[in-house]
Amino acid sequence: MKFFIDTADIDEIRDLAETGLVDGVTTNPSLIAKTGRKFTEVVAEICAVIDGPVSAEVTALDAPGMINEGRKLRQIADNVAVKVPLTPDGLKACKALSAEDTMVNVTLCFSAAQAILAAKAGAAFVSPFVGRLDDIGGDGMALIADIVEIYDNYAAFTTEILVASIRHPMHVIEAARLGAHIATMPPAALRQLYDHPLTDKGLAAFLDDWAKTGQSILES
Ligand code: E4P
What we know:
Blueprint: E1 2-6, H1 10-17, E2 24-26, H2 29-35, H3 39-49, E3 54-57, H4 63-74, E4 80-85, H5 88-99, E5 103-109, H6 112-120, E6 125-128, H7 130-135, H8 140-152, E7 160-163, H9 169-178, E8 182-185, H10 187-192, H11 197-213
Parallel strand pairs: 1-2, 1-8, 2-3, 3-4, 4-5, 5-6, 6-7, 7-8
Bound molecules: erythose-4-phosphate.
């Protein structure tokens, strides 16, 4: 399973890139707005830090506008994935940009029917938003299970399932259990994956006992 981080904060991205566990980055207009910085500069910086796909979202609503914006974003770096919304125009743009060998991430997917359309439009990634579905009393993980099952039926569907709107480690675990290709998560959720109180407790006990021996590994 690949891990993407869902942020446009370059300091966070640099810090987490050092773990060696980050395979890509997703951004959206809200995350870019939070930085208060110029969109294209932020995307260029992220692309220089991360080897894998970096999603940058268009804001035009019509297909020609999205295609123009997508072409511009694509020129920033080879690892830019152009993000388009799951609308009829978004999928037209997806088809056109994919035909030009641009990676396209179709975002704001909330149903299996939409995921089928994204795959048919040649998307490199489809982003079902599990957290936002859970927020309104839906079942985000049931959607992931449906998409995995459907895509598995068709060898021609090469779109990767990028589980988005992740809120906590259980979302990541469930997505992995279902065989989703990618989980994109906020930095805090990635850091939470490391945590277990028994790890902290066990380490403290080991180090206490070790200190009593008076030994040092490097000096023995
Ligand atoms: C994914 O690409 C989106 O940017 C993101 O996961 C949305 O998450 P949110 O629902 O926490 O805003």
